[in-house]
Amino acid sequence: MTSPDIELADTSTAVPGAEWWRTAVIYQIYPRSFSDSSGDGIGDLPGITSRLDDLRSLGVDALWLSPFQRSPQKDAGYDVSDYCDVDPLFGTLADFDELLDQAHRRGIRLIVDLVPNHSSDQHRWFQEALAAGPGSRERARYLFRDGRGLDGDVPPNNWESIFGGPAWTRVVEADGSLGQWYLHLFDSSQPDFDWSNEEVREEFRRILRFWLDRGVDGFRVDVAHGLIKAEGLPDYSPDPEGGSMGGDEEGVPYWGQPGVHEVYRDWHAVLAEYDGDRALCAEAWRPTPEETALWVRPDEMHQAFNFPYLETEWDAAALRDVITESLRAFGSVGAPSTWVLSNHDVVRHASRLALTAENPQGHGIGPKSVGKPIADVGLRRARAATTVMLGLPGSAYLYQGEELGLPEVIDLDDDTRQDPTWFRTGGERYGRDGCRVPLPWSSDAPAYGFSATGESWLPQPAEWATLAREVQAEDEASTLSLYRALLAARRARHLGEGTLEWLDGFDAQVLAFRNGNVTVVANTGSTPVALPDGIVIAASGPLGRATIPADTAVWLADD
Ligand code: GLC
Predict the structure, then answer these.
(1) Looking at ligand 1, which residue's alpha carbon is closest to its atom 6?
(2) Catalytic annotation on 273?
(3) What's the pTM value of the predicted model, to 2 decimals?
């Protein structure tokens, strides 16, 4: 590894309003699919450390690591059995410390995933709860209830798991009889904690401090809208066409209950005990920016993912509305807006933006789906959409592989799929494996350089040879080169700190705004539009002589 030359700036004296997370570009690493140093086909922490120079040259400010803590991997690590250790699949705590240190030496911050809504059923607490029986202190850490009906064989309410099937599983008591039920909003291996229990709250303060003491810069908080359930656990039937995480629905008894905010006020105070602007980012799927902004009021979290933005179609008017509303809503509580187009739970935006049929979040696409995307339209739109996103003020999230223009992998064989969604819906929903396929690093190495042995926990498509990072690094027209150029210009021109001013007078299919001395113009339509005056500093695709072609965006500077 080359010797790093940038030290992380000391932010302990940072001016309020200038904290790093207000403007940072944060790159999501999905550890099992990033880089595998051990050769077992599953990425690991030393694999990430070995690629930090690539991430520095990409130009990101921070990394978010999806879970690497101890876990039986029933939901790819979002089922945690020990919150304060590294799963041997990914390495050791010493490997984590080395990764953190090497990232900091390169001026890159690191946030880790925290999964507070549920643990794994293999967590010590849950095993103790099973053994201890009804009415015990051990059961009170989770949501155990007696069943309905004469024999208690009807679940306590009608809730459905986000991954399909019932949200309750009945346990066999120590004496062999069928007993109570426990709630799991996700897989049956992911029992929900009871957040009205002070013991749970205290345990999570301890977990936060464990990672803060090691020096992490913050946490991405999983299912941050779900911790508190409505009093009495009333029945509720979701809209079958709605997204899995409830982004579009109001009045759901397990999403966005008012009491959830108290938890984050408490955590805010824990983070404030530490120096260096540690941050919390909420994964809270809410229908509007306004509701999402409730998670980032001044004494709560610092950022929240802007899922309303992610869910907006490639359409100038719709984008203008959601951007305006985001800046207004987050700004009204003194928080930065965030922007995101892809993550490990959604169809990659290089495919999603060209889907021609409804595709609710979490359902995924596969061989039998209708409305499959046309690949080159998807990539063109994705590059243009990213060119718009990185021109916006605030903080932006990137998902590993989008800088290579990776599409969703649609034709995975049924027997390779691993998402619990696929199993719990009997194959009716493909789920999220298609956005989780391991990255291609070089075109002619085994597993395209993901692992030295050629192992890969999901198979990589043959076409990915041409998308490998090494190939794209040499090609000025590649998606990787576009991301590098955008990130460098964003940094040099301080676009993260800027303010947005809409520009009018363009065709209806055009989105146009200014941020500082940069003009961003995107053509979301199907015919070319006039290219305004200015010096082109970045373009998502080839431009006409004086035109911006369909599905193309451009950055223009005055000087
Ligand atoms: C979040 C994660 C997702 C996981 C779920 C349950 O939505 O992003 O991957 O399956 O929570 O933890």
Answers:
(1) 78
(2) yes
(3) 0.97
